[in-house]
Amino acid sequence: MTGEKREPAPEVLRVLEGLVFRARYLVEGYLSGIQRSPFHGGSVEFSEYRDYRAGDDLRRVDWRHYGRSDRLYSKRYEQDTEARVLLVLDRSASMAYRGDRAWDSKAGCAQTLAAAMGWLLAGQQDPVGVLALEPGNDAGPVRYWEPSRRSERLSEALTGLEKLPVAGGTQIGTLLEAAFRLMRRRGVVLVFSDFLDPEEEWSEGLKRLRYAGHELLAFQCLDPDELDFPFAEEGWFVDPETGLSRQVRPEQARDVYLERMGRFLEAQREFFGMHRIGHSVFRGDEDPGVRLAQFLGGRRGSK
Amino acid sequence: MNFAVPWMLAGLAGLGVPLWLHLQRRKKTQPRVFAALRFVDESPVVRHAPRRLRDPLLWVLRSLGFAAVVFAFARPNPDAPKAPAGLVSRVYVVDSTFSTRAGGGWIRDRDWLIRELEGLGENVQAGVVELRGRPRVLVGLGESPQTAIERLQSLEPSHERGSYLAAFRQASSVLERSLGSRREIVFLGDGQLNQWEENPNVPGFLRGVEVRFAHLPEQAQRENWSVGGLEFRRVFLGDSVQVQCAGILRHSGPAGRAELVVESGGREVLRRMVPVQSGQSEVPVGALWRQESDGWVEGRIRLEGIKDALGGDEAGYFAGEPVEEGRVAVLTGNTFLRGALKPEVARGYWRLDEWDPADLGRVEKDPGEVLVVEAHYLQSLAVQKAVEKHLEVGSGVWILMDRVGPVAREALTRWGVGFGPLDRVSESGVGIGRVALGHQVFAPFASPDFGDLSRVRVAGFMDLSGGGGTGLAWSEGGYPLVVEVGQKKGAGRLVVSAFGMDRRQTNWGVLPSFVPMVDLMLQYLRPPSQRVSWLDCGVPWRIQLQPWEKAGSAVVCRDGRELCRVPVDERGQAEVRLPDAPGIYKLSFGDSEKTERVAVVNLRAEESDLRYERAEPAAVGRWRVPEPDRVESSKQAQPARKGSLWWWWLLLAGAMVLVAESIWTVAAGWNRGSRAKKTGNPFVFGK
Asked: What is the CATH class of B224-320?
């Protein structure tokens, strides 16, 4: 590290062109200290013991310990290389929103975070794939780039992702359904969305993935406007996905909005906690690198 | 007065300026896109009523402008200058349709009109409406007689047919805008009887207009020979393909003989004498020959050795497109039908696709051009859906009623098949009593070359006498055997046969007429390719490219010579206005020389009917509005015409005031008060 003063990340990200540059900026600037995969698995490096339960693989029983203590223990291992990772990106019309304070739209923020995670994991030899939707494509809306360890495949997927339109109605339910069908082996699913759709749109999909044994991380990208409701000018507000419009006087509507949004986020946190789904909110005006490092560091610490 | 008055254009432009300025100044409030809208409550914006006028002069100026425009649109009618007394507005309707050439009628009418225009007095304003395919104003009322004479001298008669009614309507609308105290229509034409008899129930529209005839026909009828109603078809006989061209020879006059000549591809395929009786007669004529090539066929039928009043209608043109293999899907176990369509017999003409009733899922994606299905399969809902799918996409369906269960009967009734009171007609082994020889499927059987339909026997067929369609063939007892159903499921054609092709029900499958009948039926049911267009003279040729065809332009040629090149729009459509002459016109795309479309242009048969109305036609009497109405309406119409000039001035004044106001407000900066700036409204009020 040199002693020079570093520019705040949102300002840098605002002027960086292209997904690859942004992702590399985050990976090299913030995540370079993370050496191992933050995900559980079954592999070669010993992690911990737990009591033997009927059905456990007998090859994992520590027979030496049995000889010493007359109790059966199973060994748990940490996976460094074999977690198949799927980056699931919501690119519905609501993700196109960008307030004045954000360094990019929610979709831009999501794909930058996804790319950073992709580069990070690909660098550790984890196969990384990408899943998104392309509404209006005659060949079918699902765009899927299979997990691969090769960085050029990841580059190809991210380039393809950038070309997809940010449009259409709610996608998260369809995306999670597609992820469930595509991930046949246990793996890790990283979901990037604003999760602003009603809970029933995404909760069932997340639960199914979770019950199938996948590890889930939810990256919730929100614009600061959605969290603070800073508007002053009265006028018509339009929902980009449903087309619903309302005439709004912000000073009158703000308190109710903030209260409802707070309750909604709190309920989401409870849901994610209850189902052991990693979750973090990324504000569009915050330094995503710091937030990402905290999030991943926190996960390693919690294992 | 017409809509090309420069003052009107200036007024419209002037009126547009303040509107444009207003739109430019208007504060743009775009709706805000917000994804979390479901957390936001509706809170309507309350508007406070304005209370005090802040800029009275501006308000007065704009109000004046608006008032003037509104007043102008209310059409005030102060004393307008009177129309010149004794002024006569007269419109000459000149018939230049094809039939006027008979006996030199066109030249005579044109010369008469030129002489008439040369001798017009100063109190007569004259216009000329030319009657052709679509009537047009050749000379307006405001134009000089000399201009009218020059245009008439360069006028040529057309090959088109027009409507007397349309021409009189056109003349009437010209006269409605005239200033004359007396209005007249003078008709110059041959007075064809069939023209006057068209549109017998048209309500009156000639208000206060006198109708005169330059001359009435000298004779009730002229002798004429003509050829029309041409048709072309290929008929598949199993081991060869025959080409048939048919038409109608029409004759009026004393008995005589004409030599019929049929030419195809530059060679003569038939020459035969045709005798006709005295009076009006129509003789079906045609030729049948073996065609080796499957490509384009073109030719004409003409008459030789005749002498009549109207030249040019003794020939008619025909053309046929190249053979393109059709896809026929069958759901039938019938041996004869499958045999007629098996590849060894029908290769190059029909490709048989035998469907498995258990696997109809692909029908959704790839329906055939024609579906042949036996009625007992309609017990399956999947087969019913397949039938409906075909009809929706424009493909044809042929249903053979071998056995009809209750489910199939319900579906057939839903599609428009009308069952009679009998379940099965208890006739055993009856013959075909009558077929619709004018129909495309059965017309060729007028010639014995395609087999003898009287040998066909049918037994135990369904009773389709409940209506719901057009009969194409009937039994000797009068029961419909083949019916085209007027279904509403889609654009496809639906034909039902009251019997299956099984030996128990008919012997048709072993007769020589079976293969041609199957081929003609499938050709009829197949979606039309639209590669050959049969047009009347003067009708525009509209071309629609298929989705797989790409072209930026279309080139039209005749006899190898390029006539015109038209652009193809982004929807793949082009419109060609062909020369005013019968013939065969070929169209290719871009710089390619390959013929893609052909237009066969022939004369309208009605133009060859040289019977005339010698007295003043009753139709003109019906077109006149009764006298009391006429007086009343002319009283109402006159002031409206007088006020028109005043109206234009008012409109212009209003527009000018608005323009002045706008310029003033822009020059003044339009920022006298913050509220005024905020609202962008000239009615500036404050608390």
From this structure: mainly beta
Binary contact (B45, A247; C-beta < 8 A): yes
Q: What confidence tens digit (pLDDT) does each residue in A153-169 have?
A: 888 898 888 888 888 88
Tell me the pLDDT tens digit for each residue of B156-176: 889 999 899 999 999 999 998
> For B88-216+610-641, CATH number?
3.40.50.410
**What are the residue ranges of helices labelled H in B299-416?**
335-341, 343-346, 381-392, 406-414
Q: What Rg, from alpha-carbon coordinates, does chain B have?
A: 35
**Could you identify the residue written with the tokens 């005013």?**
B580
CB contact under 8 A, B39 and A261: yes
Asked if B209 contacts B183 with a C-beta cutoff of 8 angstroms, the reply is yes
Q: Which of B35, B38, B43 sits opposite A248 (nearest CB)?
A: B43
Nearest to A226 among B32, B36, B42 (CB): B36
Contacts A225 to B, Cβ<8 Å? 34
Q: Which among A94, A235, A256 is the nearest to B32, CB-wise?
A: A235
DSSP B196-239: HTSSTTPPP-B-SEEEEES---SSSB--EEEEEEEEEEEEE-SS
Q: How far is A119 from chain B (nearest CA, A)?
A: 30
Q: How large is the average pLDDT for residues A242-251?
A: 88
Closest residue on chain B to A262 (Cα) = B39
The identity of residue A71, as a single letter, is R
Strands of B88-95's sheet in order across: B136-139, B124-131, B88-95, B182-188, B209-213
* Interchain CB distance below 8 Å, B40 and A236: no
B32 CB neighbours in chain A (<8 A) are 231, 235-238
Selection from A261, A27, A192, A221 nearest residue A105 by Cα: A221
Residues of B with CB below 8 A from A102's CB?
none
Q: Is A234 on the interface with B (CB under 8 A)?
A: yes
Q: Which of A196, A235, A240 sits opposite B29 (nearest CB)?
A: A235
**Same fold: B88-216+610-641 with B332-525:** yes
Q: For every residue of B653-680, which 3-state class applies, written as one string?
A: HHHHHHHHHHHHHHHCCCCCCHHHHHHC
pLDDT digits 0-9 by tens, B3-54: 445 566 676 676 666 666 655 655 556 788 898 888 888 877 655 544 455 5
- Token pair listed for A263: 């309750």
Task: Compare all CA atoms of chain B with the CA of A260 and give the residue at the minimum distance.
Answer: B39
- Whether chain B has a CB inside 8 Å of the CB on A263: the answer is no
Report how far apart, in Å, the C-alpha atoms of B305 and of each of B257, B258, B275, B314, B515 are.
8, 6, 12, 10, 39
- How far is it, in rounded angstroms, from Cα B377 to Cα B562? 54
ipTM value > 0.90: no
CATH H superfamily, domain A9-38+80-302: von Willebrand factor, type A domain (3.40.50.410)
Amino acid present at A150: R
- Where in chain A is CATH 3.40.50.410? 9-38+80-302
Residues in chain A within 8 Å Cβ distance of B31 = 235-238, 245
